[in-house]
């Protein structure tokens, strides 16, 4: 569970040597932050993945923040948090907003580096939480500093839930035809 990124520049996919495409998730945004499974501290993924948001929600719940989520503590999952946020549950909105702000900061860093024309955010978090998507985009736009660079955002892209399957097929076809398309794609789960 984490964040995967794919970037296409000048018609070619920028590939990582390990093919994991997980470097964005391990961008450090807090040098004294939470310990990540990669052994660094303060990686984006430690704040923005489904397990991280669920953990944060439960931490705040333990501290006594009230919530409308009416379920045994161990049974509360990410979908409950997204549903509660839609109903304006303060705790759920707090957990998702904080994660989305941190994601947006990383996104701004990434946008400044590669100046993409289009950024597609996808995966279960984006699908189930409009609040996460809107907050992340807002934060990224607020913090990006390349002023003459115009970037568009898409929630889910053209292919929605089929994106991974279509992407895998396109990779194979590209391998044969040596062609590619354009954009930056984030899958947050
Ligand atoms: Zn990490």
| Structural class label | alpha/beta
At CATH level 2, the architecture is 2-Layer Sandwich
CATH top level class name: Alpha Beta
Q: Mind telling me the C-alpha Rg?
A: 17 Å
Low-confidence stretches: none
Classify the beta-strand content into a percent band: 5-15%
Tally of alpha and pi helices: 7
What ligands does this structure carry?
zinc ion
Report the count of strand segments: 5
Shape: globular
The SSE order reads EEHHHHEHHEHE
End-to-end Cα distance, whole Å, is 5 Å
Largest sheet report: 5 strands, mixed
Structural commentary:
This protein has helices at residues 45-48, 50-62, 78-86, 90-114, 124-128, 130-143, 163-177, and strands at 3-9, 12-14, 118-122, 152-155, 183-188. By secondary structure, the chain is an alpha/beta fold. It has a single domain, classed as 2-Layer Sandwich (Nucleotidyltransferase, domain 5). Strands 2-1-5-3-4 form a five-stranded mixed β-sheet. The radius of gyration is 17 Å and the shape is globular. The chain binds zinc ion (ZN).
């Amino acid at each position: 569970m984490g964040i995967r990124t794919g970037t296409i520049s000048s018609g070619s996919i920028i590939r990582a040597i390990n093919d994991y495409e997980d470097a964005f998730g391990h961008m450090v945004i807090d040098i004294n932050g939470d310990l990540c499974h990669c052994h660094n501290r303060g990686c984006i993924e430690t704040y923005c993945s489904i397990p991280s948001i669920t953990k944060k929600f439960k931490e705040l719940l333990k501290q006594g923040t009230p919530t409308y989520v009416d379920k045994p503590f161990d049974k509360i999952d990410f979908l409950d948090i997204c549903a509660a946020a839609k109903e304006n549950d303060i705790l759920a909105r707090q957990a998702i907003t904080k994660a989305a702000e941190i994601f947006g900061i990383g996104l701004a860093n990434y946008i400044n580096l590669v100046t993409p024309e289009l950024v597609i955010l996808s995966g279960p978090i984006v699908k189930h939480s409009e609040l996460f998507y809107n907050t992340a985009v807002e934060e990224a736009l607020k913090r990006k500093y390349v002023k003459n660079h115009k970037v568009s955002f898409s929630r889910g892209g053209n292919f929605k839930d089929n994106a991974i399957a279509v992407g895998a097929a396109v990779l194979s076809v590209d391998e044969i035809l040596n062609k590619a398309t354009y954009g930056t794609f984030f899958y947050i789960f």
